[in-house]
């Protein structure tokens, strides 16, 4: 996921990082390409709105997740290719970034991604769901330690030797720790959608190259 965002930023930076140029022809080309980018962005926004219901929500389905899993590597490949083109031509032309971005939608369609807006909305919901699930699992494994910590801190509140200003700080810390135990699902994700993400979790984190830190488990073996 971080790799995807980094690559996309490179393309976007190249789009807006146009050096000053006095050549009229190049200025016309820049204006033309900028219009193409604006038109593509407008169409993209319109396509996203068409995919939402009257309340502005996008419904995540198994078919959309399947398409996302299939198309994600394709998108990564296209963005990497565009990054390479921008880097190779960086010193020669300030137009490359714009033209590459302007042709992104066309390149995606040629590669089989007919609805980039659906892909993007799916990416948003899938990403939010994945990181919610990861955080939820981490918090579940840490619950016992958090409970012990809260218990120890509450004992300090009963200690008459602890100054009142320190007790106030302890109360704030206890409140913060208790609130951290409750973590609401991402806004816009229904229970059914979250269940879909859970069911496809392994496939999604694999295709998106998301690294999950897991605590090392030590098992004691007895040899008879």
Concise description?
By secondary structure, the chain is mainly alpha-helical. It has helices at residues 2-16, 24-50, 62-89, 96-102, 104-110, 116-157, 164-180, 191-199, 201-207. It has two domains: 2-62 and 74-114, no CATH class; 123-207, no CATH class.
Question: How would you portray this structure in words?
Answer:
Helix content is 71%, strand content 0%. It has helices at residues 2-16, 24-50, 62-89, 96-102, 104-110, 116-157, 164-180, 191-199, 201-207. It folds into two domains: 2-62 and 74-114, no CATH class; 123-207, no CATH class. The two termini are 47 Å apart. The longest helix has 42 residues, at 116-157. It has nine helices and no strands. The chain has 224 residues and is mainly alpha-helical.
Mean pLDDT: 78
Order of helices and strands: HHHHHHHHH
Domains, number: 2
Strand content: under 5%
Characterize the largest beta sheet: strand count, sense, and whether it forms a barrel.
none
Number of continuous helical runs: 9
Distance between the termini: 47 Å
User: Which structural class do you get from the secondary structure elements?
Assistant: mainly alpha
Strand element count: 0
Shape: elongated
Question: Uncertain regions: pLDDT < 50 for 5+ in a row?
Answer: 18-22, 216-224
The helix fraction, in percent, is over 70%
Radius of gyration: 25 Å
Short descriptors:
about 220 residues, mainly alpha, 2 domains, about 70% helix
Task: Please write out the topology.
Elements: H1 2-16, H2 24-50, H3 62-89, H4 96-102, H5 104-110, H6 116-157, H7 164-180, H8 191-199, H9 201-207
